[in-house]
Amino acid sequence: MRIRDLMTADPRQIHADTPIPEVARLMVEHRINGVPVVSGEGHLEGIVTTGDLTHRLADERIEQRESWWKESYYRSPIGGARDEGPNRASGRTAGEVMTRKLVTLGPDDDMTLAARMFLEHGVQALPVVEGERLVGIISRFDLLACLAEDPGCCNPFRGVRADHASQDTDPDEPTEP
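The structure corresponding to this sequence follows.
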C-alpha cells in the first residue's frame, strides 16, 4: 500500500514565527504528535514535535539536578554536552525549537518503508513531500489504523501471483509438477 493512500493530505502546518503556546494549543486541540513548519511558498523547513516541546517542559518545570558539580559535568564535553545549535528549551517560536534534520517520505513510497523509518528513527510522524513541497503527513497511528481495518495490508507479497515463474526459466520448456 502506498503512503498516499494512508497519509493525511494537506496537514495542519505552521510558520517559523508561530509562538510556542499557539503550537502547543494546535497540537492538543487536534491531537497530533507533530506539526510541519513551512515557508511562505509551502516548502518544508522543519517539524515541531511533542518531543521538541518536552525539552521546554523539562528545563522549565523539573527541579534542578542534585548538585552544582553534577550540573557542571552534564554540561561539559566529558559529560556529553554537544553544540546542537540554539537551546530548544528556551525557544519562543516554532523556528527556534523545530527539528531541522528531517526524515521524509514521498507519496509513492510503500508503507513498509514508513514502518521501517518509524522504527529506525524513533519518530511518531513523517512529513510527505514532493520535491520540497509538503503534501501530507503520516503517523504511526495511520499505519495502525490500516492494520486494524485490513490485517493483510502489511503483507509485502499481497497482489503478487504465486504462479509466476522465475525469470531464469525458459517458458518453452516443460516444468515438472
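Confidence is low (pLDDT under 50) at residues 60-70, 164-171.
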